[in-house]
């Protein structure tokens, strides 16, 4: 039998119930399989409320999303800076970023330009991100994954 910090020891159930009622609390069985069963005097309604609140807060944890930034090998420096500013907002929101360079027509023969464009983009946001996956080609596009710095 435990009442806050004070250990009361072994006593009959009737006496334990009387002590709980005198304090305006409930007698709660903590370990029913123990011999003798262990009980605790506490406010059970308050306990349930705090337990519900803890589980609600545990569900509030935001899952990270993957945001996509689309570029082209013809994307100019100002447009790159605008997209880097948007990527910065995503990274501050603890999201992953997938940078995609899409090849149109014969641009696919200039993969080196796409890699240079991705490196330039990364240099604009390298203070807040790390490269998770280096640029690699997948069909008519090249992708790179960025993580926020922890």
Question: How would you characterize this protein structure?
Answer:
- The chain has 150 residues and is of the alpha/beta class.
- It has 4 helices and 8 strands.
- The chain has helices at residues 13-22, 44-59, 77-92, 111-125; strands spanning 2-3, 6-7, 26-31, 38-42, 66-71, 96-102, 129-138, 141-148.
- The chain has a 4-stranded mixed β-sheet. The chain has a 4-stranded mixed β-sheet with strand order 5-6-8-7, covered by helices on one side.
- β1 and β2 form a beta hairpin.
- 15% of the residues are buried.
Roughly what percent helix? 25-40%
Q: What's the average pLDDT? A: 89
Based on CA inertia axes, which overall geometry fits? rod-shaped
Q: In the residues, how many domains can be counted?
A: 2
> For the CA atoms, what is the radius of gyration?
30 Å
**Order of strands across the widest beta sheet?**
2-1-4-3
Low-confidence residue ranges? none
CATH superfamily of the largest domain: Translation initiation factor 3 (IF-3), C-terminal domain
Number of strands: 8
Largest sheet, described in full?
A: 4 strands, mixed
Assign the CATH topology of the largest domain: Translation Initiation Factor IF3
**Architecture per CATH nomenclature, i.e. the level-2 architecture of the largest domain:** 2-Layer Sandwich
> What's the CATH class label of the largest domain?
Alpha Beta
The helix/strand order is EEHEEHEHEHEE
């Amino acid at each position: 039998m435990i009442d806050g910090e004070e250990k009361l020891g072994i006593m009959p159930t009737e006496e334990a119930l009387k002590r709980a009622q005198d304090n305006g609390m409930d007698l709660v069985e903590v370990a029913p399989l123990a011999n003798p069963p262990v009980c605790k005097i506490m406010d059970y309604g308050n306990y349930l409320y705090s337990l519900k609140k803890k589980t609600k807060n545990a569900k509030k944890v935001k899952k990270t999303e993957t945001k996509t930034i689309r570029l082209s090998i013809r994307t100019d420096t100002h447009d790159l800076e605008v997209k880097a500013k948007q990527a910065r907002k995503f990274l501050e929101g603890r999201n992953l970023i997938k940078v995609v360079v899409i090849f149109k027509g014969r641009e696919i023969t200039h993969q080196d330009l796409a890699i240079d464009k991705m490196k330039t983009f990364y240099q604009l946001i390298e203070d807040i991100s790390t490269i998770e996956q280096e640029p690699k080609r997948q069909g008519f596009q090249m992708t790179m994954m960025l993580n926020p710095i922890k």
